[in-house]
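Field guide to reading this record: the first block holds the primary sequence, the second block holds the structure written as C-alpha cells, and the final block holds curator observations. Each block starts with its own label. This record concerns Nudix hydrolase domain-containing protein, catalogued under organism Populus deltoides.

BLOCK 1 — SEQUENCE
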Amino acid sequence: MVGSMTVSVNSTPPVDLYANGTVHHAELLPASDDDHGGIIVDMKEPMDPDIFHARLRASLSLWGQQGKKGIWIKLPIAMVNLVETAVKKGFQYHHAEPNYLMLVYWIPDTPSTIPANASHRVCVGAIVLNDKREVLVVQEKSGIFQGKGVWKIPTGVVDEGEEIFMAAVREVKEETAIDTEFLEILAFRLVLEDGL
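BLOCK 2 — STRUCTURE
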C-alpha cells in the first residue's frame, strides 16, 4: 500500500493494488490528503477519458483500502469531458466557479459528512451618522427602487473574501463618494427565500 502523497499526472508512480487475492498494477490520479480524512484530486493536465476512468477506478480502490472518506475532484473547465466518467462512478456536483467544477464522492457505507456548498449571500446596509446625528440616505440609480423617489440607507453585497465591515465602508464610498469609519454591527437578518 502507498501512504499519503502528492503526485502529478505526468509522474504518477504506479502502485500495486490488492483485490480478490490478486495484485493489480495501476496508476493513480494526482491527489493530496485533505484535513478531514479525505482526498483532493486537483486535475491540472488534460487526460483522455479512458485513462481517467482507469486511474479513477484504481485511485478509489486504494483510497477505500486506506480508509479515506470524502473525495473531491477539482476539474478545470477545459476538462469537462471527464465529468460524465466521474458521475458514472458515483461522484456528484458540489459547486462550480467560473474556471472549475468541484465533484464529490463519499466512499464509506455511512452517512456523508461532506458539507453542503455555500448557500447564503451576505448583504450589508450602512447607517451613517454625521456629527449632527443626521442619517445619510441615498436613492438607487438602478434596481427595483430606481426612479421611485425612495430614500434608503446605502446597501450592497459582500464580495467573496471580503469582511463585512469592509463591505459596508466600500458600499458607502461607491454610492456616495463619502469616506466612513465602521463602528459596529447593529443587526442581522436572514432571508430564506428570494426577497428584499
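BLOCK 3 — OBSERVATIONS
Confidence is low (pLDDT under 50) at residues 1-11.
The beta strands are 15-19, 22-26, 31-33, 39-42, 70-76, 92-97, 100-106, 123-125, 155-157.
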